[in-house]
Amino acid sequence: MIVSFVPKYSTTQQLNNSTTQQLMKCSAVLGGTGKAGTYLVESLLSEGYTVKALARTPSKLPEHSRLIKVQGDATDAAAIQNLLDGCDAVISTLGPSRDKPDTCSVAVKHLIEAMHEKGISRYLEVAGLAINTPEDKKGFRTRLIVGILTSLVPAIINDRQKGYALLLQSNLVWSIVRCPMIRLTGSEGPVRVNLQDSPGNHISATDLADFLIQQLNDTTYAEKAPFIAN
Ligand SMILES: NC(=O)c1ccc[n+]([C@@H]2O[C@H](COP(=O)([O-])OP(=O)(O)OC[C@H]3O[C@@H](n4cnc5c(N)ncnc54)[C@H](OP(=O)(O)O)[C@@H]3O)[C@@H](O)[C@H]2O)c1
């Protein structure tokens, strides 16, 4: 099933009242110093959000009056607690590292606990094509890419699947946005969304950021892992 990405705030399933939009104004971001995260932080700030960003090296983040930098590691429960104070939603563009292949699932575990404790429900995560869900009907190209990745970095692929399993068991309103190659470009036009297979070979980081921000106030893909592409 392919659906086109609709313009901001125009679906029937959006959390459509102005009160919700006003409340969802402080987003916690993990991975904000990375490729996708840099675009996300910039877009959130230009949309008027306050951003609390966790970074191992906060100096990599830009200076902005509505950007609160939190120094720490995503695998540290105390850092996650600190990050989430005062936030309404969480977006993770965390990337895995070969030396710490369990980064994503450990961060998800801490996030679920902290979000539950602080009454935060909306969680968005950016991932690659490898996570498997019951709805998937991955085509040859996707299966080929996933097969190559799994042979190269099996521990990282397993870790992402583990994080997905933790979210399934949680009470969060989560969405995992599965992406093909992320291109560091401005908008490249409409975003296609598919729940079964990747609808394209790339996504612009600008369009990914816009898609994520729309999902903050839209439950169309709650408890789902849509693939998106330009
Ligand atoms: N790039 C692509 O083409 C592509 C394609 C498909 C899917 N994805 C997925 O999209 C997501 C974002 O990708 P990306 O390319 O933007 O990743 P990236 O450039 O490698 O950035 C990863 C981010 O995660 C942070 N990070 C990693 N380990 C951390 C830890 N223990 N504590 C705190 N922060 C930590 C990094 O911080 P530091 O600055 O401290 O390293 C960085 O901000 C990832 O999940 C990736 O798998 C990427």
Which features would summarize this protein structure in a list?
single chain, 230 residues, Rossmann fold, 6-stranded parallel beta sheet, 3-stranded antiparallel beta sheet, 20% strand, binds NADP nicotinamide-adenine-dinucleotide phosphate
Q: How would you describe what is shown here?
A:
About 8% of the residues have low confidence. The protein is an alpha/beta fold and 230 residues long. It contains seven helices and eleven strands. Strand 2, helix 2 and strand 3 form a beta-alpha-beta unit. Helix content is 36%, strand content 20%. The protein has a six-stranded parallel beta sheet with strand order 4-3-2-5-6-7, sandwiched between helices. Helix 2 crosses helix 7, helix 3 packs across helix 4 and helix 4 runs parallel beside helix 6. It has a single domain, classed as Rossmann fold. The site of NADP nicotinamide-adenine-dinucleotide phosphate has 26 residues, from helix 2, strand 6 and strand 8. NADP nicotinamide-adenine-dinucleotide phosphate (NAP) binds next to helix 2, strand 6 and strand 8.
